[in-house]
Request: fold
Amino acid sequence: MKITPIKTEIFKAKQNLPAFIFKHLPKVKEGDIIAISSKVAALWEGRLSPISQKENLIKKESSFALKTALCHFTIKDGMVMTNAGIDESNIKNKIILLPKDSYKTAAKIRAALMKKYKVKKLGVILTDSMILPLRAGVIAAAVGYSGFDGVADYRGAKDIYGRKLKMTLVDIADTLASAAALMMGEASEQCPLALIENAPVKFSAKSIAATKKEIKYPLESDLYYPFFKPYLKKKPQNPQLKKKSIKN
Reply:
């Protein structure tokens, strides 16, 4: 697999993103994947707001918000993240939200680029920084993706000693997002795009709903559920947390 970061000029709010990508990446092959910073996708949609609105928007944009000493610990679109993905870096005197529907945005970008590139197999990933529990530094995750299977199911397969795997699912989308973000950088690199070649993925044309469903894990079955449970007034009946905001 090969990942190439793409240096660009600064992307402006409401600029045409597919045209911007095509300008800086005029050629792709069948089976390539394009990683795109969620910030430029959000700028394309005009998802900007005054800094003064940050606290209110964090609560509005998330399904769960717990205020801590460093940030709001939130769940948005089935993902654990800080401050509902709202950020002040690489933007002047404003805050950037995540795209309104990152999976829909990824699918829209992919459709436009497939037409321009004249390819049938193309993946798109929207990346954003994430923090793992008890680990220093940020990695990245796919807040949205389109065009390939984001999860590989190894249940039933055998390991090197012939033992059947019972629970192993491989999170391909987030792993690729983190690898791409490592090359794209987090500061002044000015590389909001990366080309991923020869990735070990299965290309598919799933619906947006099916793509969302494959990667979201049921809350009550999740490894971290015991940490969420004390903050829930009652046990939820569905995989997503009910809307609430809690202050410590």
About this structure: The chain has seven helices and 13 strands. Residues 48-97+221-248 form a domain with the CofE-like fold fold (CATH 3.90.1660).
